[in-house]
Records
---
Amino acid sequence: MTSPIAPDAPVVAPMQSRRRPGVFGRLLKRPLAVIGLVIIAVTVLGAIFASWLTAYDPNEQLFDGLTLEGAPLPPSAAFWLGTDLLGRDLLTRILYGARTSLIIGVVANGAALLIGTLVGITAGYFRGWIGGTLMRFTDLMMAFPALLLAICLAAVFQPSLWIVAMVIALVNWVQTARVVFTETSSLAEREFIDAERTIGAGTPRILFRHILPHLLPTIIVWGTLGISTTVLLEATLSYLGIGVQPPTASWGNIIFENQTYFQAAPWLFFFPGAAILALALAFNLVGDALRDILDPTQRGRA
Amino acid sequence: MIANGIKSGAATVAPDQANSPVLTVSGLTVSVRGDEGERAVVSNLSFVLARGETLCIAGESGSGKSMTSLAVMGLLPQPQARVSTGSILLGDIDLAALSEKRMQTIRGNRVAMIFQEPMTSLNPVLSIGRQLVEAIEAHTNLGGSAARTHAIEALKAVRIPEAESRLKQFPHELSGGMRQRVMIAMALALKPDVLIADEPTTALDVTVQGEVLELLRDLQREQGTAVILITHDMGVVAEMADRVIVMRNGRMVEQGTITDIFERPQVDYTRELLAAVPKMGAGRAAAPARSPEEPARPAAVAEVRDLHVRFDLHGGFFGRVTHRVHAVEGVNFSIGPNETLSLVGESGCGKSTTAKALAGLLPYSGDIAVGGRNLAGLGRDERKAVRRDIQMIFQDPYASLDPRMRVGDLVAEPLLIHSVGTPKERTDRVAALFERVGLTADQMERYPHEFSGGQRQRICIARALALRPKLIIADESVSALDVSVQARVLKLLKELQSEFGVAYLFISHDMAVVENISDKVAVMYLGQIVEMGTRDQIFAYPRHPYTKRLIEAVPVPDPARRRTRFARLDSEIASPIRRVGDPPARLSLQDVGGGHLVAAH
């Protein structure tokens, strides 16, 4: 611990490498963050190993999956989470659906976050005509109906999961951009940014080393809030025939397909709903913990 | 009845009443709940406040002086802080035991308070008239026009010109001094028994400070209000106090009359506190000025010629430029190696703008040459290289250090940006710098919030020194520090100057500090230099009336030299905002001998 700086490493850069092993360790000290991590791990593993975990095929309409009257089966020993209207095993569909939903919730949402942060930070720091143009464009996007944009895109390309991901990324960055813009413009006025300029710091250094770390809490909050909304937005888009095509499963479209039967077969939307809730909550817990851990000003203040 | 009180004053306080206590604090302990359990921030404090008396509570930051005042007001930050023992008797009511509801009827009515920052303690979206009238209506049964009349009288009492039209103005439309007067008007409108003023003049310019203090004194004399004045400034204490309490770490270390404290301090801490106060005249006596007229004068480190900084104000439908702020208008000066030039003046005079232009933070017109090279003609990379020679230390060290970075990385950052040395060399240099400014190398791993104000300013100094600059701009760099810390930081700056031969451009509103550190002084007013010369020329033989007023306005930390009358300035300071095409007249400076430049007046 006496000489934490490696002799050949630059002086500022090792800050991260010095700290990185500590972040995960400190995450594990927080019970809530551990719960979140476990849920995320279970979801990811479930999605990856879905074919080993269940005996059924997600799209197979099982012979004994329906009652004699043709109604779906409630949870039982054979079908742990019951079956759906077509006699498919719900657990299997949720496991396979996790693939779609993780891509949407994490990848598409992450892309939206990235675009939003970049636009917001640039507009907030530069102001002038660059900032003005970017923010007016953001306002324009905010006013543009997401579904219309999705339908246009789907008309041009083949409907697929990636179209949905793209649409979500293109639609969801605006709120992040707005918030990041506001925060950046107030950060840019802070004295330590002036102090950085007087020592000759260039724009990239100021933006990414000194402003970005201060935006982390905001970005984490928007990121976790975005997960549940994007998973449901995917369902809407799939329902309109733009996104994932049946019979491919996603958490959103399982809920959508079955919403009219919620009195007769409540498990059909209770379980996928609970999965979305648990995933969003898990990211939220981990995000909250990360925000506290990454904020050095909170050290020693409980 | 109350309305009459303002104008004529309750005037005569009955002699037998004069010494009866209005406020008796006994055994007051205020504790704050923290991570490590409860901690006393004020312990076992007792004092008595007589009618018409001014009691100063003096002490450095963290001494518990503000907590004491908040306890009296019943405004302790909830739920962490509470009065754990002791009583605060106002007449025969114990304020410490009072419910919040009953406290509300007393607060503002019988005990009023003035805060340090008049901008933040006034509501920015309500006109001052509305705020005043509301305060009056809340505590009296006056309503509507009666309350308004009363408000106008209250404003007149604090000598605000054109009181009636001011009622419609909003806080941001008033200057700092005017805002503080409005606060005083609000506090005194209801003729409280006790007025608590928490650093009422700290955020104000010296000349305005003098006026506000005098106003407080006059109003107190007229109304017989007892005043608790909380301040860190021993000059203000000497000017105002009847009795003084010196506090440290939540305890009273000494209590006595003003003459006792200043002439016969009993406790070492009081002596140290008094010794640390920069005194006018002391700087000249201690270190005779080096002669700037050395025969072989080395080339100037920085040369500023005809510097202008103007900001455009847009107005009208098409956003055309209608007005300009003439922040800096044709400033000339040069700083030699190893020399300290101070820029002094009141807020808004353009001294900080000059510094910022020099540091490359603002666009300017005119010429700035560093080490003989004019910045105007250089490309981006060359300019960056030349700018290495100018570094800056800001007023608030906490605000000027990125709170999310380790201080070691912050000090190493200028070296990294200008690619100086290998990483190992950089680390070594940072460690050496830390030790040079009085910190230890193992503190490099910490974050700015883990240091005290003085230590943070030392980090900023280390950071400014990292590139071995030729000129360091210190913009009010010691103003936010406690006097004892301030004295040590000033000493460090002087040592570093003789060690590294660095020149300082020292910007300050505090004339005593300026006198202490400068070789040369330039006095700025409305963006122009009105007087410039060596320290002795400026302080011993000031020529320009503005310089004279600035020097006179500094409170002297000696109760025997208390002034009875301040130069009064009831009008607002002229504005640097002018219409396009109407630039201010340029002052021409005349040499009155020995390089002492004075503007025609």
---
Amino acid sequence: MAIEEIKASSGTLEKQAASTGYKDVDPGKVIRWTLLFLGGVVMVMPIVFMISTSLKWPHEIYELSIIPKEPTLDNYIFVLEDGRFYQWFWNSLLIATATTISAVLFDSMVGYALCKFSFRGRMFIFIAILSTLMIPTEMLVIPWYIMARDFGWLNSHWGIMFPGMMTAFGTFLMKQFFETVPDDFLEAARIDGLNELQIWWSVAMPLVTPALSALAIFVFLGNWTAFIWPLIVTNSPSLYTLPVGLTTFSVEQSVQWELIMTGAALATIPTLLVFLIFQRYIIRGVVMAGLKG
Amino acid sequence: MKILNKKFWKNSVTGLAAGAVFAMGTAAANAVEIEYWQYFFEARVNAVDILIENFEAANPDITVIQTTFPYADYRTKVAASIPAGQGPDVVQLFYGWLNDYVDADLIRPLPTDMFPPEQIEAEFFPMVQAMKRDGAYMALPTAVRALALFYNKRLFEEAGIEAPPETLDELVDIAAALTKRDGSGNITQVGITTGMNAQDHHWWREVLVRQFGGSPYTDDYKTVTYNDASGIAALQWYADLETTHGVTQSGVMDEPQAAFKAGRAGMHIDGSFRIGALNSTRGLEWGVAELPAGPDGMRSNYSSYWVNAVTSKAEGEKQEAALKFMAYLTSDEAMQIWLETVGELPAKPTAALTDANKADPVFGPFVEGLGYARTTIFANESGQRQVIMDALQRILLEDASAETALGEAAATEQALLDEYYN
Amino acid sequence: MFGYKSLSIKQKQVVWAWGFLALPVVFYSVIRFYPTFGAVLLSFQEWNLLGGKTWNGIENYQKLFADPVFWKVFGNTFLYLILGTPISLLVSFIIAYNLDKVRFMHGTIRALYFLPFMTSTVAMAWLWRWFYQPVPIGLFNNMLAAISIPQFPFLKSTFWALPSIWAPAVWAGLGFQVIIFMAGIRAIPNTYYEAARIDGVGPWTILREITLPLLKPTIVFLVVFSSIGFLRIFDQVFNMTTNDPGGPLNATKPLVLMIYDTAFNAFDMGYAAAQTVVLFTVLLVVSLVQLRIMRDK
């Protein structure tokens, strides 16, 4: 499927959704809508409870009410006074951003090279890269850990990010999308005297921006929520990412659930906000990555 | 936690100071910075903060940075970072882990001129001698601890109970009077907290098994001997608290101490280290009593300690600084601060078994307990704990008999011990 | 030495291609392939991270296959998968199929289902752990108590603990599957449906004869994707059972948690590597079998 088709189908998706038909109200449809809506409400209930609990005083948290009787920001003040949350947030942001830039750049470079250059060994490289999709990270974690230790990368930002600097999934995705870029465009640019790097960057890349943003969303989200590798590779709390820090924090608070919920809310709200703002793009990105990947 | 704020502060302040010093062109900028690691336990963290402050005041050329981890990750982090040339210069570890640390070359012996073995043996509790290897001490404690029974005074008053239990039978009766249920019969307040994952596995091993007439291990702690009638009776008695008497629910409120802190438990068995945390819990009125005596009046207790050691990562001037800090951590002054902040008793009998401490309503029961306590020698503390946890779970969740559950536990634990010692 | 200028266009392309691929080839060799072989080698060795490595043949594998805990864990891992993939796919398909037909507030409802996918697994694990507590603190049990229904043991039962940990994993992944299914449904050309309508075929037949067969690529993708996810479950279990990791009585322990424990708590690196090789084999076999079955149908 070409990008145009996906664009078209997601376009109609929006259009169809927008044209609401009130005329033919039949009971079956009303029931369907009601059930779906209730199901959706149930889906977000846990998140609602998390946020509501984070706004409650300790004596109120075991009550079933969703709206706090006397809402308070005390929990947030306590958790943020801790100071570590800022640092964990920053670590996560830095690592997710850096890996995203790197993965988007390199994956599209490799995808482009495998798609648009003909050379011996192309198929071999492609299959080799694709085959790494079958290797679970958990298998690599132990050798990575040893590697990081030997190179002195333990306990550093670089140590957290190095395994994710390129992704086989992204390479595959980008290769698929570069297939839709007509060779004539590239040839024309070549005649204009652009070198291959310039052609890739200024001719081919702008034509696949939807794919690039889809990949970026996936890589970012993946690194933002990554847990096992950051847990293993970091030793000092100042280098923890948000998920690892949240675990530490929650264990420390033992069972002060209002504080744990506040920490959880702090770790969750940023991505939720990003989603609510860029909903259309994110859903389109997920669809593209999912269907092509 | 404000601790880390303080640390950041300190870092930025020392950073600023160093910058200022550099700008002025003076040559005093060669301060040594050493790192101290322990697991996260609020009272202990606060105590070390105070100790560091005092130590730095006396040694302006040394800066000590404290780092903490959740208990579950602590050993992993220590073992992973020291060989990589990172991590602590002075480390706190559980006495039961010493062998692992020595075998792995993670810690260095304390020089005998600074820490003469004869003097240590004359001054410290004899259990500390387990820290000696080849004529030198590897590690030393600041404090020792024992178990006691904490009770919620307000709940006792409410139920009309005048005094904490003297015997195990009394404990069951009192716990029954303290248990509360809601309309559907769900427990909302437990008479006594249970949960082998906290301190209860120690209570069972060194106290209950002995009180029921058995002994948990041979004297060298290399062979399991609790798998007999007395061991079974002890485990059965413990499980009965939940299954027969219904005065407890294991894992209520996720952790036993949390239930007690929240005022949802009448009694709670824990170590002296809990005192600090309970002191800072608002609205909780609590008292301490000795662990109840067994059927024939026998008393027993479990004592343990955390030690400090200088790691193999500390070299040169860092090692010197680390040894200085070590010496301060094991000084009488540090022990007193530790007692006041954490509630653990000084590691020296002369300082611990004072009349004042014995008469103290809070420290008294612990001091008494220390007199007849035993110290389990662990090969693999977390593994051996898991075995006891699983034994209880088999009874509670799988309806296994105490005999079957304990038989399995003994076999598994013996395998652990054999693997370690052979 | 030839100058770049003297190369033919084809040769220039080869140079550029390898220029583009140089760094990635190094990356994949050093960060993916070398460690994979490293893990396989390590699985035939004994090493505690500190001393030297010693070869011990297939001892690690023998120890593993003789360990009842491993078989328990192996079973758990598959239980997560067998419960997870079919149920979550069925539910998400039903939602997607119906949501596709809904116009009013379509975007809002879609967002409601998708929101959990955007959360952090660790945060959600703690959230659900709180929900599962017994009275007086757990949300679910407090709800039950409010309507006088007996307590449900959730994480404290050897039978229910695994489904309790599994549920949030399904919950968080549902939105993703719904979106993918809907896109798959939308991608089916309208002409098929029109033809069917002209023939007067009922909705059930349309679903069975047109929608499902044409959705096969989407289904294959989701089955493989979600199976791999469930076989690798870790974050949820780790965070929901910190008091008794993988408990009670190993009832919730998946393979990845066993690997983590063996490697980073017991420092038995060779033994852990052997477990990772088993995990790798399982993932490979499961994916290949699924692809094969789906292709045949």
